[in-house]
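During the no-cost extension, the postdoctoral fellow (Dr. R.K.) reprocessed legacy sequence entries with the updated structure-token encoder. One reprocessed record is reproduced below for audit purposes.
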Amino acid sequence: MSKVATELMLFLLSITMLCSTHAIRHTHLNHHRDPLGDSDVEGNWARLPWYQAILGGGLFSIMIQWFGLTHGSRRNRMLVGFDLLLICAVIATAFITMHPVLMYHVLVMILANTMVGFFAVWSVHHGCDDVVYARSERHPLINLLTFNLLYHIEHHLFPAVPTNHLPVLAKRLDSAAPQWTQQPVIPFLAPANQYQESSVTQKSNSLDTEISLIKES
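Re-encoded structure tokens follow.
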């Protein structure tokens, strides 16, 4: 997809989802550069208790939009600003016309955006550290229902791999570096003996070797 087509798609998604996807792109790329680090405004939501992550979901959405609007290149800030103008126009149209379909869409999207911080960030990063910074789910039904989005450590280690190939990548990671997949997203669905303790030192020292093995397999 060309750059122009990508930008147009992001504008369309911003209108549909009622959140700036240009802001999300900026914060998510930063999240991958510094996962759970001091500058990771997205990932640091996982440091909250679960109930705060849920109840403060609206604040998370605002933080992401604000970070995108105030950080990054001038061009990106302008794109985020245009996203927000379009979103405001959609919401204003809904409340002025009171069209039932448009009103339903606006209210559902606002509610959905308040849950993103919990489901898309907290659930896959809570309890992790700056070495193994994401969880990974192995239950086939859960992965089917979530379109493989819970293969999250795989996504971080190999972000260019499409989600439909993540199950294959997960098997390679389980074989070459099982200590990297010891934290499931939904622990009570995982077999008790599947996840073994492993020291952070071992994980850190063997990362380069393990990733090389996965790429070669």
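Residues 195-205 have pLDDT under 50 and may be disordered. DSSP finds twelve helices and no strands in the chain. The remaining legacy entries will be reprocessed before the final report is submitted.
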